[in-house]
Design goal:
Layout lengths: L2 H14 L16 E9 L4 E3 L5 H16 L13 E7 L3 H9 L13 E6 L2 E6 L2 H13 L1 E2 L6 E9 L5 E7 L8 H13 L4 E6 L20 H13 L3 E2 L2 E2 L6 H4 L23 H15 L4 E3 L14 H7 L1 H19 L7 E5 L7 H4 L6 E6 L8 H9 L3 E5 L12 H17 L4 E6 L12 H12 L6 H13 L5 H18 L7 H5 L5 H33 L5 H39 L7 H8 L5 H23 L5 H32 L18
Parallel strand pairs: 2-3, 3-5, 8-9, 8-16, 9-10, 9-11, 12-13, 13-14, 14-15, 15-16
Antiparallel strand pairs: 1-7, 4-5, 4-7, 6-7
């Protein structure tokens, strides 16, 4: 009989005991083995015994801070009725006694980051072989606390837990617009660690301030050496390794656009370094010498994906003669050699690279240095991801998997794609021996807000920690309670509504709720094509988005936590709603103006243009509604942006809100002028004269 079956039987027997009957607690990630025990009231607070190990005192302080934030007393001295928490290392005699008393075994696989947690009878003990193990046990303990203040309770449990994957990370785009503040990055680190992620990988194209190449970094939009040092030290406290990615082949337009660097590119002012160009490798060597001095991690990510320009310029003849694969892989090997020359402890450095190009040349992959790590990436919800990994596995190369939260170019992440993508990619990676997961956020058009991505980030954390295929349904039923403390289910239902809203647009052949749909003019030629597909689903799209807004409000009223993240969810829902409203109201205006014009052309009609014109552009006109929609969302977007990001780049997005607002103001003014003309002359211009399309055959 397997241990998992024994645990399952023990849990079922425990739950039949009326004195101990408890529903399984909602936890993210879900522990491998958990047996529910009776809950403990926290009216007397929680007394945390000072750990003997100095490193574990940071975990104790983290627990105390979390409890105080929830209004739970944390007395420093003994207090009557307080639940006692003890953090122990495995070698401590008390830890051995606890394990023996509960017939629990500390498996060899648990020694790195695993833990045992026993919460029962007014006492809690966390046992780990390492500081990381103790810390992760504390993170589970924090999730077992339900409620706030004197009404808070600690769910009793007996837990044995350890990760399925050694490296569990989040890759954050810092180069396509949003660049987070240092304070927000620290919050990210704390939150990643709380859900057992242990890698944070900031993505740099040009937003790291290099002393050797000071021209590249945009003013106000780059991390400085001092900020990096502070972040790395902060992350270390939370057992998070900061693994930098500096693009070293493609994605370098913001370097190569300058005349000083343009000759190094495959094409003038292009995106890709030219293999064989004498200055290319020295540039990479300079950059990575500074990267090595800033980031002590044994991992360095070289990027090297999407080198689409390769063979179109300086290397055209070489690519024709040798093929694109050999040229690409040789330069990648050259980059590794150059970076290795600059790195302290170079023999122990591990180099990550994106696996998309090399995957197509499996025979040549074998020529790459064996200590490289291929990071296979794919963001669709395909059934199997084996083909992305097998070329590297068969070459004997270590792999990580990189799914994505599908937040890029969207008003809100599309989790109907992201969740199965993460689930299946991580599942297949574990089966094929991948040692790490690097979940990704991207900011392609510069409009993404990180606070909208926590749903996908936390599911990635669960998938990488838990063995096999993590349950999407279990996560969706746990997220709101765990992350937001929402016991009403409103947050979870709001996420489902937004998933359904995306699905409506997908079903209509429009992809999903993209930024493109948010900005496209419904009266443009392109907008009219979009309108044909969107009209049948506009009402249901709006209903799903508006229901999500109401659900978020209910969660707030019930005292949900992480208000900034809830605000970001609501903004996504409101932007979805405005997509539907824009196309509906644009049709309303065209129809009503057509009716007004028909009434003017046919005096025998009983209706007058006056009421139609007022509904189009008046105190509560449809055009004013669209003006208000963009102007109000502009202000909310700006507020949420500055809550997490530096001012850099923000104006590029706000300018779009301003232009959209101005567009509807100008259209309202034209209709107002037509209205005044009606009062003066009893005549109005044809729709085409003021830029309004004809709809539905209205004469």
């Amino acid at each position: 009989m397997t241990r998992q079956l024994v645990v399952a039987l023990a849990l079922s027997l425990t739950l039949t005991d009326p004195a101990k009957a408890q529903a399984p607690p909602a936890l993210v990630p879900q522990p491998r083995e958990i047996e529910a025990r009776a809950s403990m009231p926290l009216r007397g607070g929680v007394r945390i015994v000072r750990p003997a190990n100095a490193a574990d005192r940071l975990a104790a302080a983290d627990l105390a801070d979390a409890l105080r934030e929830r209004g739970v007393r944390v007395p420093t001295e003994g207090a009557t009725g307080a639940v006692r928490v003890t953090l122990l290392r495995l070698a401590h005699p008390a830890a051995r006694r606890l394990l023996d008393a509960h017939h629990l075994r500390f498996e060899p696989a648990m020694r790195g980051e695993g833990y045992v947690l026993v919460a029962d009878g007014g006492r809690v003990t966390v046992v780990g072989a390492t500081a990381a193990g103790v810390f992760y046990g504390v993170q589970t303990l924090k999730q077992l606390v339900e409620g706030t203040g004197a009404r808070a309770r600690l769910r009793g449990a007996r837990v044995r837990d350890w990760p399925a994957m050694r490296y569990r990370g989040l890759h954050d785009d810092l180069s396509r617009g949003p660049v987070p503040t240092l304070d927000f990055q620290k919050k990210q680190i704390r939150t990643f660690a709380a859900y057992k992620l242990n890698v944070y990988s900031p993505y740099f194209e040009h937003t790291l301030a290099y002393r050797s190449n000071p021209l590249v970094a945009p003013p106000g939009g780059a991390m400085t050496r001092e900020q990096v040092a502070e972040l790395v030290a902060y992350a270390r406290r939370y057992h998070v390794d900061v693994v930098p990615e500096q693009e070293a082949f493609g994605h370098l337009h913001h370097v190569l656009k300058y005349e000083l660097y343009s000759p190094l590119g495959e094409t003038p002012h292009g995106h890709v370094l030219a293999p064989g160009q004498p200055g290319a490798v020295p540039l990479i060597r300079e950059m990575f010498a500074e990267v090595d001095s800033l980031f002590p991690s044994r991992f360095v990510h070289l990027g090297a994906d999407e080198t689409f320009e390769l063979g179109r310029g300086q290397t055209a003849e070489r690519v024709r003669a040798e093929g694109i694969g050999p040229v690409y892989l040789q330069f990648l090997a050259d980059v590794v050699g150059a970076v290795r020359d600059t790195a302290a402890g170079a023999s122990s450095k591990r180099f990550l690279f994106w696996g998309d190009v090399a995957m197509n040349h499996p025979d040549l992959v074998k020529a790459l240095p064996r200590d490289m790590i291929a990071v296979a990436w794919e963001y669709g919800a395909r059934v199997s991801f084996d083909e992305l990994l097998l070329p590297f596995v068969e070459a004997g190369m270590e792999t990580w998997v990189a799914p994505g939260v599908n937040n890029w170019n969207r008003v809100y992440p599309n989790y109907s794609v992201a969740l199965p993508n993460i689930q299946r990619f991580v599942r297949d990676g574990q089966r094929l021996g991948s040692t790490g997961m690097l979940n990704t956020t991207w900011d392609d058009d510069g409009e993404a807000l990180f606070n909208q991505t926590w749903y996908g980030v936390l599911f990635g954390a669960a998938a990488a920690w838990q063995p096999g295929a993590s349950s999407v349904e279990a996560f969706q039923a746990s997220y709101g309670r765990v992350f937001h403390g929402d016991t009403t289910g409103s947050v979870d239902e709001a996420q489902r509504k937004l998933i359904a809203a995306h699905a409506l647009l997908q079903g209509a052949g429009l992809g999903d709720a993209s930024d493109y749909l948010f900005w496209v003019d419904p009266w443009s030629a392109e907008g009219q094509l979009v309108a044909q597909k969107l009209r049948p689903v506009a009402r249901d799209l709006r209903l799903r988005a508006e229901e999500a807004i109401v659900l978020i409000a209910r969660a707030r009223q019930a005292g949900a936590r992480e208000q900034d993240a809830l605000d970001a969810v609501e903004l996504g829902a409101r932007r979805m709603d405005l997509i539907g409203m824009k196309f509906q109201f644009a049709d309303d205006v065209a129809r009503m103006y057509g009716e007004a014009y028909a009434a003017f052309r046919n005096p025998a009609r009983s209706t007058s243009p006056t009421s139609y014109l007022g509904d189009i552009s008046g105190a509560n006109g449809r055009l004013q509604d669209l003006r208000d929609g963009y102007s109000l969302l502009r202000d909310e977007y700006e507020r949420l942006w500055v809550a997490e990001n530096r001012p850099y780049w923000l104006r590029n997005v706000l300018a779009r809100y301003d232009l959209a607002t101005q567009l509807w103001i100008e259209r309202a003014d034209r209709v107002q002028a037509a209205r005044q003309r009606w009062y003066r002359e009893s005549a109005i211009p044809a729709p085409s004269e003021i830029g309004i399309p004809e709809v539905g055959g209205v004469p």
